[in-house]
Design brief:
The structure is a homodimer of 408-residue chains. The first copy, chain A, is α+β, with helices and mostly antiparallel strands and 408 residues long. Chain A folds into 2 domains: 260 residues, L-amino peptidase D-ALA esterase/amidase (4-Layer Sandwich), CATH 3.60.70; 121 residues, Ubiquitin-like (UB roll). In chain A, 32% of the residues lie in helices and 24% in strands. In chain A, the strands form 3 sheets. The first copy, chain A, has a 6-stranded mixed β-sheet with strand order 13-12-11-14-10-15. A 5-stranded mixed β-sheet of chain A has the order 3-9-8-7-6, sandwiched between helices. A 4-stranded mixed β-sheet of chain A has the order 1-2-4-5, with helices on both faces. The longest helix of chain A has 23 residues. The interface between A and B is large, with 64 and 64 residues.
Chain lengths: 408, 408
């Protein structure tokens, strides 16, 4: 299940970046499950990773490698998260890098390779299968496409997720392109498993890292499907520099400002694509908290609503059972809340004002709003001027099936 | 669905307390939905109520009345929560009290009646139906039983919930008896909707209130089904004093100590009965956090595990997918957590130690543990000496059906 139709975009090639995608048979046969990114020399690479204390072995290794060297390769497997695997897991994550580096020869060191894994937690990585498939993946570097990459990183996703932007500045055309994956265990904390975004623009590494963090905060850190932060979240941003512009190193750079806007937009599209393909999702839901006292207060309330099984099942049922939203607002420990100032709307239909059902509300209007596939719930607290939004899904039978019928 | 078999206990009569239960047709015809408790003169009555800021009108009125006078009657309706109903709701809650007081005549004032409602939030209370049924309820005071009361307060509950204790002290027999209801929107904060416990022991009102708060904290405030605190939670404790003992007014009183033990035990049984009958529940799950730094840390982690849809669906599937538990521990913001000290067991089977799968763990042992109807998950943090437990359910298709197929 998924919300809406997603046509795979016509993705631009990013100069300086190549992919190799193949089948390693990690968990399933005949499924693309191993992806290699080759990054040109001289590129800038930024990364954000899960804050889960039990972060996966590849996350530990990728963070260490990124701190030591500029990456030239990324290697990603699905079907196994290599998390909760202790010392063996670290060895296996390192092996993914060293096997690839050895094949590439003297130019590439083990530290210039970042490993990523996604899939079931707590099972030993079948490293022999992956090692055996790395030459096959590398042989595809001339042939694999963004579509292959987006498909090759899927787990319980029902469709590949990608987005792109091209824009011209002073007569020159620049490109951004990216892919994301994720459908369950989604409540990212600094990133989500997995997203890779690339541009041909030349940007200084530290600025690229700042911009990645800023846009992650407003994109992947604003989505939730089921409240659990994965052990394997990661988002990587690559700037190959092949567009040939003078390196951007200041936030005041005009091309940089334009890039930042496009980056924010592509990051939000990729984050929202994960929600639209959330496990069992039949609705795409935006929850906006307005007139809050602080960003934290707004986000806490928005996520409380987004995580409430009662609100989520009402959304699934297209039932305007707004009492459940009101109950969450009431239990959210908002200090000195004046309930008479609270207003709640559903796709613009006012349901609650003055601490009770809005006088203008009719069940028909509520029913019409809730039957939409895309729903906005706005709670206005009448306290101050802070507004925040998060994106989530409903809770359906399909969600239970996906997570109870087989081990993911 | 519910976990285990629940035989309705052979409940003792509490001297000084009578019930009248009838059908008012609030939401459904031919269903007991109106319960009146008559409390003798001279009794002590204590109460705890929801902390939801959008607390229901009857909660507001009951708290006010309890502060002003010693209650002589409780009146409870199901089928409508009278929450989110504004000024009209307050009028209706007051009417429930005044109509009853008027029938009883000069002896009883409106303030001596406490109102309670449970059911759908946000719909106007059909006060005429309730008012019309009050005389019928009062006419049953000679006839209605604890079973009628336990049945008369049910909403999505599949079975009546009751518990009792009798004990002798210095040759005299004392009794406690109580009922509870609740199956969804259960994550109480100071009480749960609804529980009524009574004893014939003579206890001073302020001490009774202290003991109610202490035992609530370790019983109803330790359960969760779906993380949402109801707008209508309330727990009332009545001490009729008809046993004739000298009034207990100190925590050092020997009979009082004995009573407190029995009270804690009956409160926990009633709270756990709600979990066993949780919406769609197929498992009764105890989550214990041991060796935590503080009570708050232990409870936060225990509730995070209890609320994780991924853990709950794995419990439903009887799948020892312990990686999901590990992911929750990891994302729970435990400051300076040393993952090498974390140990996780499932019904005594060690699944995680030293930050990874336990060497001794086998899938067969995990599978056997998870196939049980009653499951204990213990997470030991190796930090200090604080231990806490909470009780919860799994997340099944039935939960989604109950909350999506009709409005509750």
């Amino acid at each position: 299940m998924a919300v809406g139709v997603a046509n795979f975009p016509d993705m631009p090639q990013i100069n300086g970046l190549r992919f190799g995608v193949t089948e390693a048979g990690v968990k399933y046969a005949d499924r693309k499950d191993l992806v290699v990114f080759e990054i040109c020399e001289g590129a800038s690479v930024a990364g954000v990773f899960t804050k889960n204390a039990f972060c996966a072995a590849p996350v530990t290794v990728a963070k260490e490698h990124l701190a030591k060297a500029t990456p030239r390769f990324l290697i990603v497997n699905t079907g196994n998260a290599n998390a909760g695997t202790g010392e063996q897991g670290l060895q296996d994550a390192l092996s993914m890098c060293s096997v690839l580096a050895e094949i590439e020869g003297q130019d590439i060191t083990c530290e210039q390779v970042l490993p990523f894994s996604t899939g079931v937690i707590g099972e030993t990585l079948p490293i022999e299968k992956i090692a055996a498939a790395i030459p096959k993946a590398l042989s595809q570097l001339e042939h694999s496409t963004w579509f292959d990459v987006a498909t090759g990183i899927m787990t319980t996703d029902t469709r590949p997720k990608a987005a792109c932007r091209t824009f011209s500045y002073k007569g020159k055309v620049y490109s951004l392109a990216g892919v994301s994956k994720g459908a369950g265990m989604i409540k990212p904390n600094m990133a989500t498993m997995l997203a890779y975004v690339a541009t041909d623009i030349n940007i200084a590494p530290s600025l690229l890292q700042d911009w990645l963090q800023q846009t992650t905060e407003k994109s992947f850190n604003r989505i939730t499907i089921d409240s659990d932060t994965s052990t394997n979240d990661a988002c990587i941003l690559i700037a190959t520099g092949k567009a040939g512009n003078t390196q951007i190193s200041s936030i005041d750079d005009e091309l940089g400002k334009r890039f930042f806007e496009e980056l924010m937009s592509i990051m939000q599209e990729l984050a929202q694509a994960i929600v639209r393909d959330g496990e069992g999702a039949t609705k795409f839901v935006e929850i906006s908290v307005e007139q809050a006292s602080s960003t934290q207060e707004a986000l806490n309330l928005a996520f409380n609503i987004a995580h409430s099984p009662l609100v989520k099942t009402a959304l699934f049922a297209s039932d305007p059972n707004w009492g459940r939203i009101l109950a969450v607002v009431g239990r959210s420990d908002l200090p000195n809340l004046e309930i008479s100032k609270v207003q709640i709307t559903l796709n613009g239909v006012c349901i609650v004002e003055n601490g009770a059902r809005a006088m203008s509300y009719t069940e028909e209007a509520g029913q019409k709003a809730m039957s939409s596939e895309e729903i906005n719930i706005t709670v206005s607290l009448g306290r101050s001027q802070i507004n925040e939004s998060v994106w989530t899904t409903d809770l359906s039978h399909e969600y239970v099936s996906v997570n109870a019928d087989y081990r993911s």
